[in-house]
Amino acid sequence: MQHQTQNAFRALADPTRRDIVQMLATRDMTIAELTEQFDMTRAAVKKHLTVLSDGGLITVESRGRERINRLEPQGMVPILDWLSFFDQFWDDRLNNLKEAIERKDR
Predict the structure, then answer these.
(1) Which of 59, 75, 81, 85 is most buried (CB neighbours < 10 A)?
(2) Which residues contact 41 (CB under 8 A, 6 or more apart)?
C-alpha cells in the first residue's frame, strides 16, 4: 500500500500529469490527442503517461494500432485514504479549539 501511495503521489506531483488526469476525467484519449494539448513531443507525453500508469491513475488499452488512455478512478483511493487522515486531524483540532473557546467564554 505504501508503494502504491508513493507512486500515485509521484504521478500527481507534476502539473502536466495533473492536467492529463483532468483531461482523461472528461473522456478517454489517445497519445496523439493528448500530445495536441501540450507543447511537447509525443515521447514526452508518453513518459508522463507511463508515470501515471505506474501510479495506478490510468489504464492503457490497445485498440488496433491505437493506445487508448483511460482514467482509473480507483487509483485515487490511496491518495484519498492518506488525505482522509488529515480531515480527521483537523476536525479534532478544530473541535478542541471550539471547546477551549467555549470554556473561556463561560
Answers:
(1) 75
(2) 35
